[in-house]
Amino acid sequence: MSEGKCTKFYPKEFCEETTILENGFTQYARPNNGRTVTKNGVDVDNRFVVPHNVDLVVKFQAHINLEKVNYDGMHKYLFKYVTKGFDCSMVGIHSSSGSQSSSETINEIDNYLECLCVTPNDAAWRLQQFDILHTDPSVERLPVHLPFENNVIFTEDDDLEEVIEDPNSSTTKLTAWLEANRENPSARQLTYIEFPEHWTWHNQGKYWDGRHGSQRRIGCIAYVNPSQGEACYLRMLLHIVKGPRSFAEIRTISGHEYPTFRAACEALGLLGDDQEWSNALKDAAQWALPSQL
After folding, report:
1. What is the distance between the alpha carbons of residues 33 and 101, in angstroms, rounded to a whole number?
2. Residue 116 vs residues 82, 87, 152, 249: alpha-carbon distances, Å
3. Nearest to 245 by CA among 200, 178, 160
4. How far apart are CA 24 and CA 26, in angstroms?
5. Calpha distance 134→151 (Å, rounded)
């Protein structure tokens, strides 16, 4: 009750038959047949009846509100509870000398702990070392970059000259794919996105090796915003070009090497007319982050 009114909007209105409302909820039949029951001095009729299942009420000896669900947003309501994680609570730590004086500075990091409640079934699952998360098939993320424009990861303690001179700094999954095509003629039957299905990436040595066993893996080429120009055209070509041994061969169509990746895409008819692609670039530039413009 809140301010003398029921928060669940009881009593409901009388209704002669059960109907489905436009919002997907069910309006149950509550006929005005004159039947009433006096409880705590209040006359209760069909408007006060909570939707229920008699078998469940008798079995569990409890009040159980059971309603029909019939709207498309219900999956969000259900799955948000199983994906939002465990219940957490904030626990305060106080000294035994008494309450903290108002002059002392409150350090929330030192004085509070964020506690996690793990239920018995979850604890047993972890103790048995069962998989918490499983993805099948595994996904291999494939980077896209123009020649000598790959990302290099280093720490503030690394010597920049050593980082630049290190040959592994310029080796990526894309360049290693080109190298594998040069050294293995059998690899030239696959596109970049098909490559992880038959070859395994070794991050330690930064090289591709023939896949052994039945483990499945699929490739996923990283997204490139159209406003990035040539890198976007390169990504389009990587979906269809098989077995190139260099960046130049990626933009080689029917024996003719085109000067840019965009020209190669135009030769394959991937861009439509110039006006259509120009409009796409304008839309992409409009929504791009400032760092991408």
Report:
1. 67
2. 16, 7, 37, 55
3. 178
4. 7
5. 29
Whether the Cβ atoms of residue 35 and residue 82 lie closer than 8 Å to each other: no
| Residue 229 burial by Cβ neighbours in a 10 Å radius (0-12, 13-18, 19+) | middle
Contacts of 152 (CB under 8 A, 6+ apart): 163, 169
Tokens of 64: 């159980």
Can you tell me whether residue 245 is helix, strand or coil?
coil
Give the C-alpha separation, 47 to 45, whole Å. Answer: 5
Q: Side chain identity at 138, as an amino acid letter?
A: S
CB 18 within 8 A of CB 28: yes
- State how beta strands 112-116 and 199-202 pair: unpaired
What does the block give as tokens for 193? 């996105």
pLDDT at position 287 is 47
Is there a contact between 183 and 153 (Cβ–Cβ < 8 Å)?
A: no
Q: For the chain, how many residues are written? A: 293
Q: Using CA atoms, how far apart are residues 280 and 262, in angstroms rounded to an integer?
A: 14
CA distance 287 to 227: 9
* Sequence letter at residue 275: Q
pLDDT tier at 216 (50, 70, 90 boundaries)?
confident
The 10s digit of each residue's pLDDT in 34-70 is 899 998 888 899 998 888 889 989 998 888 888 776 6
Q: What residues contact 220, with CB distance under 8 A and at least 6 apart?
A: 139, 140, 141, 142, 193
For residue 290, give both structure tokens.
């400032």
Q: What predicted TM-score, i.e. pTM, was given to this entire model?
A: 0.51
